[in-house]
């Protein structure tokens, strides 16, 4: 079984971060030093004193190897646990190693207040620690997954680790994991009588591999928003029946947001609800649509008018699947990613501003960051009673522009336009800080996203569309407006004309 190993110099907070990470991911926590002490029947300082470091390292190596048979756990390692090549090889083949790194001053502060006895640092802690760090500098910096813990709270460091791993457990609406990984990880997830639902485009590239992997049956539906309707839902219900799905079966949604919205809805209603798993294949669905449990379909009167809150049992986002996504779809998905950056992740926003080529080369990092933002918001407010409305940034104007364009503009293109318009409005009313509009427009330009409402698009129609959008109260519309990169505020607006000035 694969573990998550936390490693690094003494004082980096491996145990504190490890315990919280284990709670967040609903996994067991193992402190390897405590295991060694239990096995030896004495405290580490005594082992060192009475038997020497080499015996301690032998005990450490054997405690580590015993983890091979343990179920997946978060493991905090001693500061020198992977110095031996065999230990490192073991840890890297039985899991992922995250290295926590800190400046010497941070470590000194923490260690001075730490009551744990650390035999290797006995005496003048400053000198001992500096020399230990110098000796192990090359070793520590050779681990590729590295987290800087200086100046951050334990909670922030846990979050950094989760983003780096692409690992989350959601529990505000249903209990499920959201993972950035490889589709091959799906074989670790127990599924009865699985069936894959995919669309004609995705099927061409990814169905065969998935089918071979899961030995599953499949259903192919037409692609595109124009098919996100009751007719396709009926087609799914009938196909579920024909394929003998019962209440214990699992449906796997392999596709973009259109497909997962419909598959999730069909699963939520078939036999009063059967399990479904999301395997998103567009950037937008990886960082947005597949997360949060909203499922549904469109009516001729409007988008997503029928739906349910029905979370999946697992979301597995494999960025490799994006290799076949048309570039225009990728760019469109980037609008939601930038939006997540503006809402609460300035680092993500800065990464996006490096432009499309950088994004294409670093899709895994982009997906991991953006997924974490959405998860944080929906865990706080799963049923959109408050802060989840922040995710509507750019959507009030954007949805209307999308609608008036008769869907000639892609969703992401329309919301990029919406975000620029809303940022300009926020600047005009003195809410947005200096330079925000420029930062947002520069970022969209670098990604090839549009900035302006098309000249020919009648402003009255956009305003009318904003008013009839299903989520809005007719008198005042609640906008999520940017204040600075990393912060939005919800603001009631009555004078809609002023938003489009
Ligand atoms: N449930 C939610 O919380 C939520 C949130 C945001 C958006 N949505 C919904 O998501 C939908 C938009 O989703 P989308 O942008 O993913 O669009 P989409 O599902 O229509 O996919 C876009 C196009 O890309 C194709 N495609 C998908 N993956 C591919 C791949 N890997 N390789 C090649 N082609 C591929 C699809 O067949 C389709 O033609 C909208 O209906 C929107 O309402 C839902």
How would you describe this structure to a colleague?
A hairpin with a 2-residue loop joins strand 12 and strand 13. The mean pLDDT is 94. The strands form four sheets. Strands 6-7-14-11-10-8-9 form a seven-stranded mixed beta sheet, sandwiched between helices. A five-stranded parallel beta sheet has the order 2-3-1-4-5, sandwiched between helices. Strands 12-13 form a two-stranded antiparallel sheet. The protein has helices at 14-25, 32-40, 44-51, 53-65, 85-93, 104-112, 125-141, 154-165, 200-214, 230-242, 257-269, 283-289, 327-344, 346-352, 356-361, 363-380, 395-404, 411-428, 436-447, 459-468, and strands at residues 3-7, 29-31, 74-76, 95-101, 146-148, 167-170, 176-180, 195-199, 217-221, 250-255, 275-280, 294-299, 302-309, 314-317, 477-484, 487-493. The protein has 501 residues and is of the alpha/beta class. The radius of gyration is 25 Å and the shape is globular. The protein is built from 20 helices and 16 strands. The termini are far apart. Helix 8 packs across helix 16 (363-380), helix 11 (257-269) packs across helix 12 (283-289) and helix 17 packs across helix 18 (411-428). It binds nicotinamide-adenine-dinucleotide.
């Amino acid at each position: 079984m694969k573990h998550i190993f936390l490693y690094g110099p003494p004082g980096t907070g491996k145990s504190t971060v490890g315990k919280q990470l284990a709670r967040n991911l609903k996994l067991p926590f193992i402190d390897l030093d405590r295991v060694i002490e239990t096995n030896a029947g004495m405290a580490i300082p005594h082992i060192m004193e009475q038997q020497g470091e080499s015996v301690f390292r032998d005990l450490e190596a054997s405690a580590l190897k015993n983890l091979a048979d343990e179920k997946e756990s978060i493991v905090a390692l001693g500061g020198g646990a992977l110095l031996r090549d065999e230990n490192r090889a073991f840890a890297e083949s039985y899991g992922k190693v995250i290295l926590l790194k800190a400046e010497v001053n941070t470590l000194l502060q923490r260690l001075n207040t730490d009551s744990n006895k650390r035999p290797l640092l006995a005496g003048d802690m400053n000198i001992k620690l500096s020399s230990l760090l110098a000796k192990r500098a090359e070793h520590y910096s050779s681990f590729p997954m590295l987290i800087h813990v200086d100046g951050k709270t334990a909670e922030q460091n846990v979050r950094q680790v989760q983003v780096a791993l692409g690992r989350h457990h959601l529990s505000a609406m249903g209990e499920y994991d959201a993972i950035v990984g490889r589709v091959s990880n799906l074989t670790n997830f127990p599924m009865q009588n699985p069936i894959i639902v995919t669309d004609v485009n995705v099927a061409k590239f990814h169905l065969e591999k998935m089918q071979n992997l899961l030995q599953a049956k499949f259903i192919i539906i037409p692609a595109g928003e124009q098919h996100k309707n009751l007719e396709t839902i009926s087609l799914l219900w009938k196909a579920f029946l024909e394929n003998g799905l019962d209440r214990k079966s699992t449906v796997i949604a392999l596709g973009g947001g259109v497909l997962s919205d419909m598959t999730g809805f069909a699963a939520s209603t078939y036999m009063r609800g059967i399990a479904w798993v999301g395997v998103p294949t567009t950037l937008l669905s990886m960082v947005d649509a597949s997360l949060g449990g909203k499922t549904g379909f469109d009516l001729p009167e409007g988008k997503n008018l029928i739906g349910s809150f029905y979370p999946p049992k697992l979301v597995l986002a494999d960025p490799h699947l994006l290799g076949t996504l048309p570039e225009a779809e990728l760019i469109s998905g980037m609008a939601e990613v930038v939006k997540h950056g503006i809402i609460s992740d300035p680092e993500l926003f800065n990464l996006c501003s490096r432009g499309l080529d950088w994004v294409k080369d670093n899709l895994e990092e982009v997906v991991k960051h953006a997924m974490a933002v959405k998860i944080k918001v929906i865990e706080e407010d799963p049923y959109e009673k408050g802060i989840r409305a922040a995710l509507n940034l750019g959507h009030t104007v954007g949805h209307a522009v999308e609608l008036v364009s008769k869907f000639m503009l892609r969703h992401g293109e329309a919301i990029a336009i919406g975000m620029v318009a809303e940022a300009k409005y926020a600047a005009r009313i003195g809410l947005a800080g200096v330079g925000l509009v420029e930062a947002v427009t520069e970022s969209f330009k670098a990604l090839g996203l549009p900035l302006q409402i098309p000249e020919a698009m009648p402003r009255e129609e956009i305003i009318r569309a904003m008013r009839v959008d299903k989520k809005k109260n007719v008198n005042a519309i609640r906008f999520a407006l940017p204040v600075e990169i990393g912060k939005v505020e919800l603001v009631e607006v009555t004078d809609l004309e002023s938003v489009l000035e």
